[in-house]
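pipeline/complex-builder :: batch 7 item 3
reading input block
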Amino acid sequence: MSAAPLLEVDGLTVEFRSLHGPVRAVDGVSFTIGAGETVGLVGESGCGKTVTGLSLLKLVPSPPGRYAAGSVRLSGQDLLAMPESGLRAIRGRALAMIFQEPMTALNPVFTVASQMTEVLRRHGALGRREARDAALALLKSVGIPEPEQRLDDYPHQLSGGQRQRVMIAMALSCDPKLLIADEPTTALDVTTQAQVLEEIRRQQATRRMAMLLVTHDLGVVFETCARAIVMYCGVIVESAPVAKLFSAPRHPYTTGLLESMPRIRDEKLRELPTIPGRVPELHRLPPGCRFADRCPRAKDDCRAVEPQLTTAADGSQVACHHPS
Amino acid sequence: MNAVIADALADPTPRSLWSAAVRKLARDRAGLIGLAVVLAYLVAALGVWLGLWATEWAEITGSKWAPVSAEHWFGTNIIGQDIFQRGIYSTATAFEVGLVVAVLAAALGGVLGALAGFFVGSWIDELILWAMGVLDAMPFYLLVAAVAFALADNPWSMHVAMIATFWTTTSRLVRGEVIKLRGMEFVEAARAIGVPPTVTIFRHILPNTTHILLVQMTLAFVDAIKAEVILSFLGLGVKGGMSWGLMISESTLEFLGGHFNNLIAASCLMFGLVYAFNMFADALQDALDPKQVSA
Amino acid sequence: MDLLRFALRKLLAGLPLILGVTLLSFTLMVYFGPDKTYQLLGKNPTPEQIAEIRHELGYDRPFVTRYVEYLRQLVTLDFGNSDSTGEEVNAVLARTIPVSLALELPGFILGNLLAIGLALTAGYFRGGWPDKLIMGLAVIGMSISFLIVIFAFQIWFCTSYGLDWFPVRGWKAENLAEYLRHIAVPTLATMFVALGYSTRFYRAVIVEELNRDHVRTARAYGTPPARLFYRNILKNCAIPIITRIMFTIPSIVIGGALLIETTFGIPGVGKVAYEAIVSGDQPVLKAVVGLTALLFVVTLLITDILYRAVDPRVSIR
């Protein structure tokens, strides 16, 4: 083993209060991200991937959320055990986050400059003038046209893609070690999606920062990440380098996800296969494997015993009694 | 962040708003205590209506300003009437004012709001919006006073004035909800198969706004009871009966003599009902708010 | 220039409202209001005397004529003389409106400031004991009648049964000390009653804003909570807060003042308006109701302009 990884998530468990009692949106999730590594966190909506992403900054709304167990260590420091004041020094600085909805993630009543310089002045200890110059340079570097004018615009005056670029510029403003991008392109239209994704990838490569890309879109992960983690119903079901995951998925859920992906170069137009059945409700989980009811390979043991995540010799992981 | 919670709790089988609301309400201790107190007041009022108690509220049963005793639980007033009996009798008045105003204001607001919302943008909508604006722009007490005079001291003039001003809030909320509903599939479908608009409004749309009407009724009930006290003090309220407002008004004559039993009794009885009802209304509002996921 | 055109258009759009309010109040208060004929006549009047008085009061003319005459008075701001005292209506208003403003404004401003402060505190500690305490007290405040608050405060502060610090009734404002002595208890009562509802409303607005995505972004970039509240949240909440404050202005000038002025014996415009209804003093009534409607429309206009000042998304179209 080389040096300790940048981020170590160990047994992270996040509960939400609900009408049916506490519900585990994230249930014992463990993974690591090394310095400069790009990791994709994939799953359907409701699988706990967004809550996992927010937990890394301890941003899950509480109540109703609660960190029931586990730790999130950044360079060895447990963020979940840290007081708010300590977290504030890390948020936006060592760890920066890009959100899904650029329309609502920026404050509508403050200008772009005001929101960017706020971060720069707090974390970078810059003066008013310097912060404005730094913000301008950042906007330029993320490819926003006419950055001088955009600085004094309000978010609603920008297009969706421009807003997301502002968000990226803000995230980059303090040279974070790890960038968390939560569905950064989902809310954008298709052509803008590709451009914004390219911008994120370019910035990641030039700045050599680590990145966790939270998305439901396997294609995005394939293009952007070195490794992928697949979540289902609050747990990790598979984790492997992207090339391996795509060529030889081991968990039947991953296989299902891959098969339901539209492929442009497909010769024959055929109906996309879907995964049969429904995601179980979090307050009524089956006793065994959470995927058993929808799994083509399910046997009796799958319905009785929950499979644990096991690590293969090459470091890839799978939680399945009958992996392929 | 609601998206996050919804994401985490994505529930593919949404239960009906009502059964969830009842379950949530059943867990709200403050709300249940409030409801119990309101029901106790209602029993007191029912007894008055059935003639079981507080029948001697208008009789002179003791000496002037008799102190608190077993015979006169809260003492007597300036002319020797029993304050406890008058206070209990006034409970019935409060319920009568509160219920009449709440139900009729909600009905009027519901119907006009639904009409405005369904025909949004048309002259019907414009007319109803204009009426709401006009009533909201009138100073409340002046309007009540004017209605009282215009109706020539009719005992219902206070109710009419309150209904005329209270319906606008309900109407605005229902209008907004109906505008949302009319874009939904079941309304489109009803229109497509040729269901007449009135049937659509009353059979399909209004029932979907009952949660708004219910909450607005609880708010109007409290507002009506509070307005009655002030109107009765100004001489525009209850006529030919007894109410907490009249008791308070009457008690002003007793201040100089240092007798506060009448004021204290009326104030406490009224505060008890209004506070309990507010607690219940809060719980009801929480229970019926579809945005709130947490218990 | 844009602003001026916007203001004119808004005022024009407010005309139907003014017409509605004046028509409704004219019908109710003037047409169906108390008849003053016999009050002004001596014993055993002759039919000629009755007809003359009715002509003087304008009762003999048709409804439409009288209503149009009212509108003309409103446009020229000349309402003639009071039927009851013969005093010029404008003089009555000039005498009473400043009193009402001096009486109501301190409580109104202090009440709203305090309510916003309490709401911010409750929102900051939401779910914690300061929140529960403040919101618990707010419900109690909401459940007590304004009238009871006034009497309780009068007995407590103004009589020998309590502290006996301030005068119960009357109005003197020759110097600051006298003025403060006379508005102290009315101000306290106004604040007490406004606090319950306002604090709850403002807290609801603040908590709703706290649930928005941009607040999460601010937190994700290390904004300290106190700064988040006084810088971000307060500006984001400005529109509903301004709306509430602005919309209570017309009602406190007349409605809120009425009860305070009646119970504290203060000669303000609320009391004058109420007495005009009771006695059927039509010129005074017409002036008060018409000006209130105007005030309402102007308030709507100012509110719209303020929106633009605080929220860049709102534009003067």
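note: The radius of gyration of chain B is 23 Å.
queue -> next item
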